[in-house]
Amino acid sequence: MKHFLRALIQFFVFLYCKCLWRTLKSVTRKVTGRCELQRICYNNKPGARRTLKIESSLKFSKSELLQSAVSVHPDSVEKAIDDIMTLKKINLDANPQLSISLQACLVQIVGYRSLLGEVEKLRREPYDCENPEHEDMLLKLWKTLRPDAPLTGRITKQWCEIGFQGNDPKTDFRGMGLLGLHNLLYFAEHDKAAALQMLHDSLQPRHSKMSKADWEKKTFDKAIGYSFAIVGINITDLAYSLLSSGALKTHLYNVAPEMPSLMHFQQTYSYLMQEFHTFWVEQDPCDIMEFNRIRNKFHKRVLKQLNDPNMALCPHFAASDIHLVNL
Ligand SMILES: *[C@@H]1O[C@H](CO)[C@@H](O)[C@H](O)[C@H]1NC(C)=O
């Protein structure tokens, strides 16, 4: 009888504990796990802050479905969101805005990935002088930057006037492939005034630091700012490394409410070119030997700016200007 009683008590204690455990679990699930995506959307305005949080929540989720959502094809985003809503048992009618908000985040997340793929492909494509499209782009670059001075030939010293190294630019693209040319041309065509000004400044002798003898001998090499095209290709390298390290996420999630595209990347590049130029002038280097140091300093400064999730690099795209449906 005694044994029976003890067993009975143990049984009830067990039931009680189990019940308590379940309640606890469901409460925690409500407060944390299950509603995390919801909580992020409710507590953060659209933009980088929200999308970055959704991204890491998905990535570090225990559920495989959630983990794999960040790498679905852009065309499958809608289905991925439906699956998540079903898995999380979220009532769509009660939360009509949630799936829209989640979808906007996921479109940005997978868009960034596909942009990186697109940029990588361009970077790996070498400049090919047999390819008429490549040649056309190169000639267009010349025409945009030097409208009044026609090229005397395809292979000519004139290329140095826009900052290439020799008489055939094809070798200068080596590091960044076609991406370097695409970016230079985008900058020259879309921010023409800024590009021309930058080219002009880069060709100016540095009066203050030049000796009279230099002037007389017209040995400007040391005094000249920098080679426009070469620096332009190098800033493509910088933009590319910001993109591939993920540092550009804050910027792109803030400026591209739908999906970051090549255009956004090229706008970012154009902005970096102008900022680099301003920075270069501010730093007042003696000569091009200081390029490495100034570039590193500039890189660090941009990284620091991008650390702030409210940050957008282009001034004409302030994060606060983004019009998205609020949850
Ligand atoms: C750009 O400059 C940095 C620093 O001087 C250098 O390490 C890098 O290789 C350059 N990139 C290209 C594509 O020339």
Automatic annotation (TrEMBL):
Any Pfam family hit: ELMO_CED12
InterPro entries (alphabetical): ELMO_dom, ELMO_domain-containing
The ELMO domain, residue ranges: 133-306
Extent of the signal sequence: 1-19
The entry's keywords: Signal
UniProt key word Signal: yes
Source superkingdom: Eukaryota
Gene Ontology molecular function: GTPase activator activity
PROSITE patterns reported for this sequence: ELMO
Protein name: ELMO domain-containing protein
Native source species: Synaphobranchus kaupii
Phylogenetic classification of the source organism: Eukaryota, Metazoa, Chordata, Craniata, Vertebrata
